[in-house]
Write a structure and sequence with these properties.
The protein has helices at 4-18, 26-37, 53-62, 64-81, 104-113, 123-126, 130-137, 185-210, 243-249, 262-266, 268-289, 294-301, 305-314, and strands at residues 86-91, 97-101, 141-144, 157-164, 170-178, 215-220, 226-232, 237-241, 260-261. It contains 13 helices and 9 strands. 36% of the residues are buried. The protein folds into 2 domains: 4-209, GAF domain (Beta-Lactamase, 2-Layer Sandwich); 215-314, Arc Repressor Mutant, subunit A, CATH 1.10.10.60. Strand 1 (86-91) and strand 2 (97-101) form a beta hairpin. Helix content is 48%, strand content 16%. It is α+β, with helices and mostly antiparallel strands. The strands form 2 sheets. It has a 5-stranded antiparallel beta sheet with strand order 2-1-5-4-3, sandwiched between helices. It has a 4-stranded antiparallel beta sheet with strand order 6-7-8-9.
């Protein structure tokens, strides 16, 4: 990169910041945070800061459930985009990639750019970038080439999607990055869709793992599509809901859910019929597996014998 390019990019960033565009542009607002809040210079040439091996190991331990839920999804996402020169990264809530997928032939390039596990990609350290800006704004976004704050990052194109845990709290970022100059807008749109769907699958797996002993109910969004997941216990109480389900049901995100009757929350006879149908099937399966033994079925379901008898009577089921 010649000497004129860094000066030109830095001047463009500074001009946008001082023009007052930050009030109208989320990108310029991020540039402003990078410059004024974090005191970064867009022409800075230093390499990304990296954690030590011990620090990276601790970072991975802190988000072990997220790593476990993301592993298979990252494999499939990489299979879809890796051949086109992209790498896939999973970053924690501090902006540190803790897991990565990439083509070995491209590893040296990505490692030289700092797109590697253990690097610090928060806005505080790297200015405007996919992972760091997604951490701040907590929304899916793409930071493409010269939208980056640092001139040294302007060959990158990064698509980042937030991931939320089973309590709808921010958990990390899924990122797909490319150093290819031939990345088109159409391809970037496909990457964004694929990354978004992958993040949803990770969230769903996280949720199911957290509520492994509950019944998982799909909620319907305003567009008729799946609006999220709700966890219902053996007493028909909602004990968990994903972020998208909470948004549709008017529940605040980011904190433990106070148990509430499923029929009251999901509303109306349709919800009750859906829950009843699901619960009846669960009871039937438990009885079949227990050979009709009510005590064994109750133990398998984690409820008392009296509770199971009451439910059997409610659904007009007979133990044989």
């Amino acid at each position: 990169m010649n000497g004129q390019a860094p000066r030109h990019h830095a001047a463009r960033v500074e001009a946008a910041i001082t023009s007052g565009q930050a009030a109208r542009s989320s990108l310029v607002a991020s540039w402003r945070r990078s410059s004024r809040l974090h005191r970064l210079d867009p022409a800075g040439r230093g390499s990304p800061t990296r954690l030590s091996e011990a620090e990276l190991r601790h970072a991975r331990e802190r988000i072990a459930p997220l790593l476990a839920a993301a592993r298979g999804v990252m494999d499939r996402l990489y299979q879809a985009v890796g051949a086109s020169g992209c790498c896939v990264l999973l970053a924690d809530g501090e902006g540190v990639p803790v897991d990565r997928r990439g083509t070995p032939a491209d590893d040296a390039t990505f490692q030289s750019w700092g797109l590697w596990t253990g690097a610090l990609w928060s806005e505080e350290h790297e200015g405007t970038n996919g992972i760091g800006t997604c951490l701040v704004e907590q929304r899916p976004l793409t930071i493409d080439r010269d939208q980056h704050f640092f001139t040294r990052n302007t060959l990158l194109s990064c698509t980042a999607v937030p991931i939320y845990d089973h309590e709808a709290a921010f958990a990390g970022v899924l990122d797909v990055s490319s150093c290819r100059a031939d990345r088109t807008d159409a391809f970037s749109n496909l990457i964004a869709l694929a990354a978004g769907e992958a993040a949803k699958r990770i969230e769903a797996d996280l949720f199911r793992r957290a509520f492994a002993h509950a019944r998982i109910v799909l909620t319907q969004g305003a567009d008729g599509q799946c609006g999220g997941l709700v966890a219902v216990d053996a007493d028909d109480l909602v004990i968990g809901a994903t972020r998208s389900a909470r948004a549709g049901l008017g529940i605040a995100p980011g904190r433990a859910l106070r148990p509430m009757p499923a029929a009251d929350l999901l509303g109306g006879d349709t919800a009750r019929d859906h829950l009843a149908g699901g619960q009846r099937a669960v009871l039937q399966r438990a009885l079949l597996r227990a050979g009709g033994n009510v005590s064994a079925a109750a133990k398998a379901l984690g409820v008392s014998r009296a509770t199971l008898h009451r439910k059997l009577k409610r659904f007009e089921l007979n133990a044989h």
